[in-house]
Automatic annotation (TrEMBL), chain A:
Gene3D superfamilies referenced in this protein's UniProt entry, alphabetically: 3.40.50.2020
SUPFAM superfamilies linked: PRTase-like
Organism: Paenibacillus sediminis
Coiled coil: none
The protein's name: ComF family protein
Superkingdom in the source lineage: Bacteria
Similarity-based family: Belongs to the ComF/GntX family.
InterPro entries noted in UniProt: ComF/GntX_DNA_util-trans (IPR051910), PRTase-like (IPR029057), PRTase_dom (IPR000836)
TrEMBL record, chain B:
Protein's UniProt name: Late competence protein required for DNA uptake (Superfamily II DNA/RNA helicase)
Helicase ATP-binding domain ranges (all copies): 293-445
Taxonomic superkingdom: Bacteria
Record-linked PROSITE patterns: HELICASE_ATP_BIND_1, HELICASE_CTER
Keywords attached to this entry: ATP-binding, DNA-binding, Helicase, Hydrolase, Nucleotide-binding
Length: 265, 631
């Protein structure tokens, strides 16, 4: 046995380096250089290259955004990296529920792609579109202590680091809701009432950001990027955006909330 | 999670303790239940559980004043300080709530009252718990219940909650209180899911207490507040085990032994209808079970080396019975889920009066207790010193073989004076060597249940499969052999070494044998289950596949062809297993096995040698139907 262990290490030493793919566990000679998973897994990612719906970023036709009730929405728009399919669900489950935090980096890199796409989409020759700060959808204290991390916060903070945009926690979740996926669209929207509130230091932090600009380069309206892992009906992000906009109004500080999610279901 | 740490003085000794509900501890030590407590000193009202456990387990405490206690903790957590955060000292020192809680002479201090007030409002500790603490009898009942539910278990907090939700929903809300009391009563052991690093002459890395692995990753943890709380990456599939996660275990009871002291009798074996070869091996195993356990670092082991198709399952029935007769618990574990599902009804039928719980990922009986437990090897991580007998079937199959994590879990699941029985048709080399050196107790079953010899593989020399695919033709020797098999009405397993060869080979075969149904399947085929069923019912006559079907599948009247038998992906065990698919039924005991390859490799030679040797033993022992000495 000892000899075998020794030979294994010798073998590992002389054989060419092999990497293990995070998502499929296969050992491959080379990983995809930008995402650090194997080429085969990279190929299967259902990117949303061009959203069909300009509002919610959906890859297929979208009845939700043409409803009359949709006029009340608080976000400017949503953009997502990928369409939520069985494989993406598995990746998110590995990260969020199994707690394999190696996925954070992968998902954040995928999210960054959607962010750069968004930037390209809104920037034109006359207008430079710029996000002032990033914030994220909060989870309840109970969830947080159960899970050990907030996936939306992690994604937001990696994006913040890569894009050098400040990340500011602005929101709190008062209670946790039953799993969203068990509910109808109407129930979900009803359920979101009063769930989120402003973080105690949020107003001050928003003021600080505003004050960091000189008056001549006044950036108003402030553009906030709201990050979450998945966009389903948009009720969660809209509830958050409502709170942010109200705070903006009370401060006499017009603001726009753009939503960036990793997956669009 | 976080836990409180306190020191309590009993007589003249100081003990350091951890608590997940300090109110229970306060009542316990001051009500006189615990005897002679004199002083209680709170060290921290809440620190990462891993640190708390380390302080409790590693360091001797003496009487100190508050400054000394701080120094003592600082010393104990030196490593954590270096690894994790710089603020740890402040965290400890500035814990204003630390200090003397109770003194027999002067009673409660203001700190204790503050704590009590605090705890009754804190997350997870509802007001209902507070009344519970007052109603001590009810609390005692709950503590006993929770400890009973956890006998032989090793569970994380989330798993405990699932168990309670199913078995005792009324305990779900106040589990902390009940667990803490059970812990104080000595019924329940509380620890952290990761054991800290040990420094000294033999430095040991931190490892997972549940799976034994050292594959750790540190991340910020919102649950304990540490910015570098380690978690185990090896056993994530069973819920995350981390440095601050609570692991609950019960104290172990000593193991029972199979019908102790008695020699295995004909009566013990008679009712199971075993063949002479099965009977002899089962008798040897019964002798092993009856022998008293030696004092050793690991449980005693026994290998039942039974050829493919020997009827292993029937042989373990008398072994299970002997443990059940002494009121012990039996575990049958196998790496493969399909084997668990296949065994379950057979065991239930053989032991109709016993409760059998069947465990695998997604099983509905996850929290059921049974005198017989059937499980995939991963599920063993949820047990701790629970079983008197652990039987591991298909020992050499993926993923158990070469996975130290599963071997660790199996060892932990067995009582330290319990016994192990391994079943295999192709034991790994390491075990074969132990047998040669006389270090491993074992019994061989060299013959199939139908008492005909194992088919000995024949050789066909041919080009590699890749070359055949390139030339778009199969050699005539192979075609002729296949024709003979088809003609005699056999079902044909055709094994190839690589998944990518399956489709081209199916195409080539269809050119030669257009008139019979041919299909291919592999691990990547979602319709695999259906195809195997179709093959069993002869709706598919020829099935091209990989080692994925090398074991477990029994098809009456079958022949086996192994192409590229010289491939290094086929080792001796794998060749013997594939060959073992042939001739399994009583009606067609002499199937054909063909090794087709360019080279005649060592693995092929050894496989043939092993098969011939087993036939020879069977012949000389008179087990074969046509053995001369058969009575």
């Amino acid at each position: 046995m000892k000899w075998q262990t020794f030979m294994n290490s010798v073998h590992q030493f002389i054989s060419p380096p092999v990497d293990t793919c995070l998502t499929c566990n296969k050992r491959v000679k080379q990983l995809n250089t930008s995402l650090a998973i194997c080429e085969e897994c990279t190929r299967t990612i259902p990117w949303i290259a061009k959203p069909r719906c300009g509002v919610c970023g959906r890859h297929i036709g979208c009845p939700d955004c043409t409803r009359p009730a949709a006029a009340q929405r608080a976000i400017v728009c949503n953009r997502s990296s990928v369409a939520y399919n069985a494989q993406m669900r598995e990746w998110l489950a590995q990260y969020k529920y199994r707690g394999n935090e190696r996925y954070a980096e992968l998902l954040a890199k995928m999210l960054e792609r959607a962010y750069t796409g968004m930037k390209r989409e809104f920037t034109n020759t006359h207008f430079k579109w710029k996000i002032d700060f990033i914030t994220f959808v909060p989870v309840s204290q109970v969830r947080l202590s159960e899970r050990g991390f907030n996936q939306a916060e992690m994604l937001g903070s990696i994006l913040s680091r890569k894009q050098r945009i400040p990340l500011i926690p602005l929101l709190e979740r008062r209670r946790h809701t039953v799993k969203q996926s068990f509910k109808s669209r109407h129930e979900r929207i009803q359920d979101m009432q009063g769930i989120f509130q402003l973080h105690s230091s949020a107003v001050q932090r928003m003021k600080d950001v505003l004050n960091s600009y000189s008056s001549s380069t006044s950036p108003l309206p402030l553009r906030i990027l709201l990050v979450d892992d998945i966009y389903t009906t948009g009720s969660t992000v809209n509830a958050c955006a409502h709170i942010l906009k109200e705070a903006g109004l009370s401060l006499n500080m017009p603001l726009e909330v753009y939503c960036l999610t990793w997956a669009r279901s | 999670m976080r836990a409180a740490v306190y020191a309590v003085q009993c007589k003249n000794r100081w003990e350091v303790r951890i608590s997940i509900d300090l109110r229970v501890d306060l009542i316990w030590w001051t009500s006189g239940a615990a005897g002679d407590a004199r002083k209680i000193w709170l060290l921290s009202s809440g620190m990462p559980l891993g640190w708390a456990v380390k302080l409790r387990d590693r360091f001797q405490a003496e009487e100190r004043n508050i400054n000394d206690w701080t120094l003592w903790m600082r010393h104990g957590l030196k490593r954590e300080h270096a690894d994790e955060i710089e603020g740890i000292i402040e965290w400890l020192v500035e814990d204003r709530q630390a200090g003397l809680l109770w003194d027999r002479a002067s009673g409660w201090t203001a700190i204790a009252e503050e704590q009590w007030k605090c705890l009754s409002g804190v997350d997870g500790l509802m007001d209902s718990d507070l009344t519970l603490v007052r109603e001590q009898q009810e609390l005692v009942r709950r503590a006993i219940l929770i400890a009973e539910l956890l006998v032989g278990r090793s569970l994380l907090e989330a798993e405990l909650q699932q168990l309670l939700a199913e078995a005792a929903p009324d305990l779900s809300a106040s589990w902390r209180t009940a667990v803490q009391l059970a812990h104080l009563q000595g019924r329940l052991h509380l620890t952290a899911a990761l054991a800290p690093e040990e420094r000294g002459l033999r430095r040991k890395n931190p490892r997972c207490r549940r799976c034994g692995s050292e594959l750790l990753r540190r991340t910020a943890c919102a649950s304990c507040g540490s910015p570098a709380c380690a978690y185990c990456e090896a056993c994530l599939a069973l819920g995350r085990s981390r440095a601050c996660a609570l692991l609950l275990r019960t104290a172990a009871f000593p193991a029972v032994h199979g019908t102790a002291g008695m020699a295995p009798t004909a009566a013990a074996l008679g009712r199971w209808g075993l063949s002479p070869a099965q009977r002899e091996a089962a008798g040897a195993a019964l002798g092993f079970l009856a022998a008293p356990a030696k004092r050793a670092a690991k449980p005693a082991q026994f290998l039942l080396w039974a050829v493919t198709g020997a009827g292993k399952t029937e042989m373990i029935f008398p072994l299970i019975q002997s443990i059940l007769d002494t009121r012990g618990r039996v575990l049958i574990a196998t790496p493969r889920r399909d084997v668990v599902l296949e065994l379950s009804p057979r065991i239930a039928k053989a032991f109709p009066s016993e409760t059998v719980s069947t465990l695998y990922g997604g099983s509905e009986e996850r929290w059921q207790e049974g005198s017989i437990t059937l499980a995939t090897t991963h599920q063993l991580m949820r047990f701790y010193h629970a079983f008197d007998l652990v039987i591991i079937d298909e020992l050499d199959a993926f993923p158990y073989h070469n996975d130290p994590m599963l071997a660790f879990a199996a060892r932990e699941a067995c009582k330290s004076d319990g016994k192990f029985i391994f079943l295999s048709a192709t034991p790994p080399l390491a075990l074969q060597r132990e047998i040669e050196r006389g270090k491993l107790a074992h019994a061989k079953v060299p013959v199939r249940f139908h008492r005909h010899p194992l088919p000995v593989p024949k050789r066909i020399s041919m080009n590699s499969v890749a070359r055949c695919i390139q030339k778009r033709s199969l050699p005539s020797a192979l075609i002729e052999a296949l024709e003979r098999s088809i003609h005699r009405g056999a079902q044909i397993f055709l094994f190839v070494s690589r998944i990518r060869h399956i489709d081209p080979i199916v195409e080539l075969l269809k050119q030669s044998f257009g008139d019979i149904p041919i299909a291919g399947t592999s691990s990547q085929d979602s319709a695999r289950g259906d195809k195997v069923l179709a093959f069993r019912s002869a709706d598919i006559r020829l099935l091209v596949t990989t080692t994925i079907l090398e074991r477990g599948v029994t098809v009456p009247r079958s022949d086996v062809f192994i192409l590229d038998a010289d491939s290094n992906l086929f080792d001796e065990a794998s060749l013997v297993q594939m060959a073992g698919r042939a001739g399994r039924s009583k009606d067609d005991p002499a199937g054909n096995v063909i090794f087709a390859a360019r080279e005649w490799t060592r693995s092929q030679k050894l496989a043939v040698k092993q098969i011939k040797e087993m036939n020879k033993i069977a012949y000389s022992k008179g087990y074969l139907i046509d053995s001369p000495r058969l009575k």
